[in-house]
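This week, study the protein below.
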Amino acid sequence: MPLDNKTILITGSTMGIGKAITQRAHAEGANVLIHGLEEDLAKSLADSLNNERTAIHIDDLSDPAAPQRLIDATLAAFGTIDGLVNNAAIVAFNKFENSDLAFYDRILAVNARAPFLLIQAALPHLEKSRGSVLNIGSVNAHCGEPELVPYAMSKGALMTLTRNLGDTLHREHGVRVNQINPGWVLTEGEYQRKVDGGLAEDWPETTGKEFAASGRLLKPEEIAEAALYFLSDACGPISGSVIDLEQHPVIGRLSAKG
């Protein structure tokens, strides 16, 4: 199995894309550190994996001390780190005019500062294992939607971090750093955000092809398949790559109308 005997730390792994990556990594032989804010969801995920090769750490990544605690918990459970997946993120909609400093700071702290600190804390251990970092970004990094300015900025910062460290850490420490930018993915959180925003409960089935060319949204499991490649030795020396995973061209897309 491609991740046999490897230890992978996945932040924000109690639901959505992080959960799917955790399940896929575990299925391919990895030890997995499950992280999130919801202890009940973390325990449920560990139980579904028969609690084999799993550990749990609940922590808020807006706390600048949390990344080191997360690395320490992984080492305490498994003794090594072979892969770090920076998946945890706050997705919050707000008009630019109404985005106050506290709102801005919390999004940037979790989405951009925490990955920086996690890579920094994990680096000595990833160097020993010749491991890899996979950052989960967003196609919003390229510009973002009108009510996602701080979120889009945070993902743009993450993309720059990936390209910078993908060069320097690979050359100087043998650690690969890559990034996936998912498009519109049907996660539990995304489903609920749209319902809370006023869409009908069956909105995924009625999403038009102007938004989803195939007639459906991406699945978390499809993103996890791509993550598996970057976390495994199959990736070889590839580092500093940022891959958009969307079902239409992110830039230069033709209008679906007219």
